[in-house]
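B., you asked whether I could sanity-check this one before it goes into the benchmark set. Here's the sequence:
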Amino acid sequence: MAYLKSKTLFFTTSPRTPLKMIPEIEILEKYFEGELWNKDTQIEFIKKLADGKDFQGEGFAKELAFSARDRINRAPKALGFVDLKPKISLTQAGKSFISGKRTEEVLLRQLLKFQLPSPYHKETDEIKGTFGVKPYLEIFRLIYELGTLSFDELMIFGMQLTHYTKYEYVKTEIRRFRRLKAYGKGSYKAFRGEYLRREVEKIYENDIIEGKTKTRESDDKSLDKFVKTKAGNLRDYADACFRYLRATGLVEISQRGHSLSIMSEKKKEVEFFLNSIDREPVYINDEKKYKEYLFDTSLPVLYSDDRTRLMDRVSEITDSLEKLMEKTTEQLKDILDESVQKRKAEILKRQIKDLKEYKEYNDVMTMFSDIKSNALYDAPLMLEWNTWRAMTMLDGGNIRANLRLDDKGQPMSTAQGNMADIVCDYFDFWLAVEVTMQTGQRQYEMEGEPVSRHLAKLKKETGKEAYCLFIAPKINEACIAYFYALHTMNIAFYGGISVIVPLELDIFISMVEQSYGMGYTPNPNQVKAIFEYSMEQAKISKDENEWYEKVKNKALNWLNI
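And here's what the prediction gave me:
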């Protein structure tokens, strides 16, 4: 059980995106079902997770048990996917979530049941009566009623919605913020920063008056440090909320506007649960009944659960109404899912056609410019998606991105662990493309070994020669050295020699520009030539720096062969 101590909302930040829970829950079920969730099993769990290569980053290397609790006690437990008492078990909601079938619907039900307080999250005596809210439900309401909700609005005001009775106040404050912003003549960044500071000082007014400004992370008791820390917490929670809401498939994001809105075709679904779900938290002091409610995969009732509505929607895509009468509710949902997948496939097909004809060239280049200038809400996601678009445009292979798309063919989340971001089938050989916004030493720590592992996996699965292109705004020196060394090391674990070419984003953009300027679609041999050249130069270069400079020059002239 966790204790509520804050005076603002919080959302689970581990993992940052909900789909990353799936492999972790699967490991918990496979190896630890029926065992006690204690320090020993927690340490063993995090070791299994690391062995499975789905754990990203170092975690808390010196506190493995804490690292395990961070992964399981937060989102998986709080959202009802796992039950840790009396022993470890996967709930029915958890089983549905990892099944891969209607994942978005399963996630939505659990988000709408998440509440504060609950038997899992108790208020301390100091803030008794502060909380009384189903956070995701009320944030959905804000997005629906306001039309859009920006990240800053959620961070500054939405996080203050600790009780559903404060909803109208929060909505009014957001509208006031918008009016003042519209009439402001100075920098928005300065306006936002000052507004955020005032709101933080107002929220924690009593703590500031009483001198309680020491934060857990520092001995610094200054007001500036206190405000900065609290503002950072609000930012982290708002980001987590954005990502979890996006994963339901009901909202779309404006990357340049940093805002969420309800998808037009999903408004009836949102209207339904906003009008039907009780806003009061339930079973606050009854853990047994709360678990029954939280684990129930039929609650809350959603718009799509009504058989009559399902029949009406399915009848729009099939002629035989009599046959539909024989179908179960789940079978009707399956028919609708198949229809959605077919529509997404058609959207993707049109996107690829337009890309190969360079109709989207200007938009692709503008997107790269926005990524470099940090103008987008989720630059890592958009870099992955835009690189897929660029790869599709500049060569003639079969290019597949391993990211998740929404019903409109727009990116929702990046590739899950243990696979390359993008894979390119050139018939005689394969190419893995890995992208990252990470810089400095963290780039090497987060991306170095996984990149070589993903390439090895691709070689094994295809049985063909495969190479890898690694793209980042700036390439860390450790990555250059590591990839250079792999060119000459015959490592069985990685399927032999690993040919990984690192390129800065600007150089890759130049390659796309060259392709556009040539007026024809480059062929796979021109792509392959870069990697063959890289192998040759790795053998004769005096060190990694000489090799890297030669490879960069080759990429800048990749069509001149």
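One thing to flag: The radius of gyration is 26 Å. Otherwise nothing jumped out at me.
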